[in-house]
Amino acid sequence: MSALKFHQFACLSDNYGVLIHDLQTGDTASIDAPDADAVENALKGNGWSLTHILVTNHHWDHTQGIAELKSKYGCHVIGPQAEASKIDTLDETKNDGDQFTFGGETADVISTPGHTLGMINFYFPKSGVVFTGDTLFALGCGRIFEGDANMMWNSLSKLAKLPPETVVYCGHEYTQANANFCITIKPENQALAQRAKEIDSLRAQGKPTLPTTIGLELETNSFLRVGDAAEFARIRTAKDNA
Ligand code: FE
What's the gap in Å between 231 CA and the centre of ligand 1? Predict the structure, then answer.
């Protein structure tokens, strides 16, 4: 059994924060720092103290809380080597294929450029959990701000190869709009239609639609169900203009 606990909370207008807590060592990591107050409230609610921040990308809605949390907790901040010049609060930088220990587990760093050029994701194979930042969303993927479609397609293809039961936490609650878009691409996908109903029901109750799994995304996410980078690019452009 995994010794890691995961706590997801909504913050800002549509971001998610996630805390990872190791029961044995007491180590606690925040995935990104979208909002220092929200992270602190989540820590207090669980009785945890912050030891690490794992940063996926340099955008403000993932980094703006780092400085305040670092000054309060003295936590160790790990983030993308390729964005070190844009994030001045990093203590340690990581590249694709790097590993590090958090609590009693090994984390694998997966580089997934596209949304930003240096985006990294954190995969915990023992727990079977991946943090995809703004690369893979439930029924969607991040907008391609800094990279190109080929780059994003390659990044999503890496995530698609993780075991199907892998639990996916991502940076935003965009699922309902994504579902509406995916249905326009594949109205005959029954698994997608069923999932869209469940999503509508969850959102009507103000509940999160995350986390998801790699397997569920492979079944229903139009951005993962395309055959090649060119088809991916067409769908990404259609979504941008939707
Ligand atoms: Fe974001």
Answer: 24
pLDDT in tens, 172-199: 999 999 999 999 999 999 999 999 999 9
Whether the pLDDT of residue 170 is over 80: the answer is yes
Please say whether the beta carbons of 125 and 99 come within 8 A.
Answer: no
pLDDT in the model for residue 2: 60
Hey, what are 195's tokens? Answer: 């999932």
**Among 2.40.50.140, 3.30.70.3400, 3.60.15.10, 3.40.50.10490, what is the CATH number of 4-240?**
3.60.15.10
Tell me the CA–centroid distance for residue 147 and ligand 1, in Å. 15
Name every residue whose Cβ is closer than 8 Å to that of residue 55 and which is 6 or more positions away in sequence. Answer: 32, 33, 62, 63, 66, 77, 78, 79, 80, 87, 90
Contact 109, 95 (CB under 8 A): yes
Tell me the CA–centroid distance for residue 134 and ligand 1, in Å: 6
Domain ranges of the chain: 4-240
Q: How far is the centre of ligand 1, averaged over its atoms, from the C-alpha of 32 (Å)?
A: 10
pLDDT greater than 70 at residue 156? yes
